[in-house]
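Hi Y.,

Following your request, here is the sequence exactly as I used it, all 141 residues.
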Amino acid sequence: MAQYIEFASNHLYLFLALAALLVMLVMSFLGDRLRGFESRTPIEAVQLINREDALVLDVREDNEYKSGHVVNSLHIPLGSLAARMKELEKYKARPIVVGCRSGNRSGQACSTLKKQGFDKVYNLRGGIMAWQSDNLPVSKD
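Below is the corresponding structure, written out as tokens. Let me know if you'd prefer a different format.
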């Protein structure tokens, strides 16, 4: 044990870099759970939609949504989410799968929904890009 302490003190920068990498690795695995929600792959999201009547909430901007979105999804841009929260109240008992282009903005939206008392909130892992990569249908209406 003394050798480890001596190594750490002699190579402080290497030891701190290792510690930072370990923290980042753990955060990448637990990130969403630490923020209070879970992520679902597109296939898992389809199962939630089919089995539990989940709502798909698309938080992308208007032009992104028009270029292709999950069929029957509700569109509320992230910047408008707080102001339009009442529109979602009727879906509070249902699971909500939140998606964006890649999964970052939808993570912010998931946090907002959890703070507003929505229990079953899931981030679409990889966003609409992952959805399309899995050859799942999109609508352009």
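The first helix runs from residue 2 to 10.

Thanks again,
Q.
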